[in-house]
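forwarding from the other thread:

> can someone predict this with 4'-deoxy-4'-aminopyridoxal-5'-phosphate?

sure thing
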Amino acid sequence: MTRKYNFCAGPAALPEAVLETARNEMLDWHGSGLSIMEMSHRSPEIVGIAERAEADLRQLLSISDDYAVLFLQGGASTQFSAVPLNLLGGKTSADYVNTGQWSKKAIAEAKRYGGVNVVASSEDTNFSTIPAFDSWQLDKDAAYLHYTPNETIGGVEYFWTPKVDVPLVADMSSTILSRPIDVSEFGVIYAGAQKNIGPAGLTLVIVRKDLLGRAADICPAMLNWQVAADNDSMYNTPPTYALYLAGLVFDWLKAQGGLEAMEAINRRKAGKLYAAIDGSDFYANPVELASRSLMNVPFTLADDSLDKAFLAEADEAGLLNLKGHRSVGGMRASIYNAVGEDAVDALIAFMHDFEQRHG
Ligand code: PMP
């Protein structure tokens, strides 16, 4: 068996050690005689796995008891609806920052439930920048401010946290666990699991407890964070196997030295790749220097008629899923936690070689 390098934006690479453990435990988890997938979510085994996953995540992100940690379903996209349904309360509108395709989707969904005030947009730079904070047209009566700390498609990341007087809501799908964050700066953090947490099918919500209990009457029980918190994320059958795998990923992260260690590795990986792109006239990345994502690195070839050959030859070399999102074209290397420095080195070597042959 040869495992290849996977630069997919999500579902993304998982740590090989996690997959091996899952394989070893597949048929008989810890002598129970059952697979995790076959167990009741009310069993002590699964409740224990869920409790341990939560405790490990709390430790990795230093999450205080002021916050509820919820393991839900429906992906980050479902939270685009859950956020306004849970947080608008008596307010008529919420503030949103538009820095890319995922911001736009969150905005479109929020408009179904209330007013949306777009405080700033980088659409005029084709989403290659982040509007300066002092230009944001904030509404002091907003129910909350929503932003996307890492735009997975555009490869644009905030390296600062907006300071606002209303609850701050962040879609951290493609940045969570890539480096330490100060959870206390946020009202709500949410993320689909399929990048840095685990497999698709699990959705993480971290919500400050004082923000619970404001859900609209029409909020479905399945989207109501209070209901999830009251039921330890087991109001209905949770995605037990995905939760188990996430728990293994959290163990793996702790064994790597936690998020400080991951940040050092991730900065080194991204630094090398951007240096390779910037050091050549053959490749280019459009994002302003201060906002270049550590996790998603889009790049174009000077001659886009070579795109097809690049992808085919990369595939051949065992470098998979480098095609850029269909909305922007070009290439994109997603280099999440489980994508090792060896993968980035292999990609850079391939890029040099391709340039030699086609440049
Ligand atoms: N937000 C961001 C930043 C994303 O990258 C994605 C998925 N790529 C989503 C939201 C949507 O996530 P899901 O597919 O889990 O609904």
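Residues 17-255 form a domain with the Aspartate Aminotransferase; domain 2 fold (CATH 3.40.640.10). thats all i got for now
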